[in-house]
Write a structure and sequence with these properties.
By secondary structure, this protein is of the alpha+beta class. One of its GO terms (cellular component) is catenin complex.
Length: 681
Amino acid sequence: MDLKHLNLTLRTAFCLLVVFSINASGQLCTTETNSPVFKENNTIGQVVAEITVQDGVTMNIITNPEEAFGLNGTNLVAVKVLDYETLDNNILLVEIQCTRPGETSPLLRIIVTVEDINDNPPVFAQSHYQLEVPELSPIGTSVEKIEATDLDKFPLNYTLHSPMGEFRLQSYLNPLILVNKNLDYDTTPEVSLMLYVEDSPPPVHTASATITVTIIDINNRPPWFQPCTETLIGISKICLNTGYQGTVNLTEQATEALTLEPGPVHAIDGDKGRNDPINYRLLSGNEDGIFSIDPNSGDITMLKAVDVAGPIVLTVMAYEQLTPDMFATTTVTLQVVIKSLHPPKFVKSSYEGFISEDADVGSMVLESKNSNKPLQVLATDDDFADGKNPSIAYEVVGSNDFRITTEGFILIVRSLAPGTADLQMRVADTTNGEFSTASLSVEVTPDGLPGPGGEFGSEDMAALGATLAVVLLICLVIIGVLVYRVKRNSSDWKKLSEASIFRSTLNGGSAGPKDGVQYINDGFQGDEDKGSLNSKEAAELPLPQGPGLKRSVPEELEKQSSAPVPLGLSSSDTSSPPEDSSSLSPSDTTDSEKEVKPILTKERRMEDGYKAVWFKQDIDPSVKEEVVIIPDSGEMDVGQEDDDNDDDEEEEEEEGVTGMNRFARRSGSDSEDEETMTSDL
């Protein structure tokens, strides 16, 4: 409570005592409330107090502070609007004189207390404040106290908004701004704050102010050689430089400042906000006094020629001119080389290439939109007879989107957006640092344009893939049909195999005819050819001694039930008992007396559905002749075939051929192509 409020309270208490003492005596007029409370911003005519008056009594206001009150009948009313903030005293004493003819009573005193309400907002002295604080100030350091004022004298509540929590308030009732975290000029040179305030009780009023805090850069870092990599260690930041490289020619003094990589010797103040001047000095590596460094610029020059082999390593110090104890060092490595007469040069002064937007990382730039040939840049060196310097290296200057291989091919390093990139290439001799440049323009074409060759785009390739898939499906279907047909005709293939075995058996071997050989062909069983023998009957005939066959069938073979069966023969046929010779016809008996020949018929029949093995003449199985397979058409007329067969006989007689074995396969159940196999023995 301030002094003003204390004074008013004491005066109010005193007035009340006086009123009570006066009103204790007889009065012509009285009031039940001698100390009414009256809020500011009242309405005119508002009743302040009601007065009880005896008959015939007249009232007059003797004391009327601020001329704020009046009488309306027996009521004391307000005749003006009262403002708490403009009153010198919020306790107003009103005195009323009550009289009656021949009688006057003591003054009626009414103490009116004007009450303050929250009708004024808080106000800052300024809408914007500018503050400063040194970087690396300890946490909790006081910055500034910014308060708002309110005519209503009610308590105010404050709130501070700091973007990254750099600052805070001491409390919500005390707007003292404190440092809340470590401040670094390099990362946060300035902070913008918002300070809010609101009053109470309702209705609540608010106000705000903007605060800009400038972080002052202090001298806490040494010089940083450029370029360098910044590294944060705790709250301290350092910048690491890898040094400088260059070349000097043996026995030759350079007249200009040395050219170094990645650039000239240069250092800046680590405290970027201060930017104190930097000086340079050679510390070591210059014992022969060959080099000199400019203390202001850092340029290194030669005082005399180098006469020793390299490399030469110089140690350079950079220090702040005003505070030399803030310093840093680096190295300059110089390679001593023999000067060449010509630097490497590109074959062309400019190159142009193309690449698609959707090309993968690592793809090569192409020579043109309509070619698959990659773009290759080449450089020659006239110091070499063939122009090929094995120590040259290519690079793209100022771009990380492309790189050049040692062979001169240009690769993309990252995905690219459509457009044209104008670049500069450099080729350097790594032994002496000599280099030259050429321009490079790479057009990145949008996805969907014709690809290399100018014929097919991505949509075309997709359509081609779909077509190939359909063709592959058709091929699989055809292969399936062929497999089915091959399996369906497997019996025909089996018969051809049996014929081949039959042919090889007739040829015999180095040991002559085999004992106990039987030839069967189940496909010919049941033929109606009465003048021929089936395979089983022919096999069961005894083999007489003759010029062609010197050995007969052993009797033991007839008694064995499980004789060996040659490939292609049925075991059931070999185990069958021989038929009684009495059942044979005379012609069969005559045939049996002749030289045994494993044949089925001597007649050639061409009826549909007929299957036969035909021999034109008797053969001698002991004769070893080459077998010739002659494909023949089953559709040939019988007469035409006979003529052809006669011709074949004449040719075979001239060549010493003794027999022919013809297998004719005809099928009466289908219309498939017929096959004929002829064997000349």
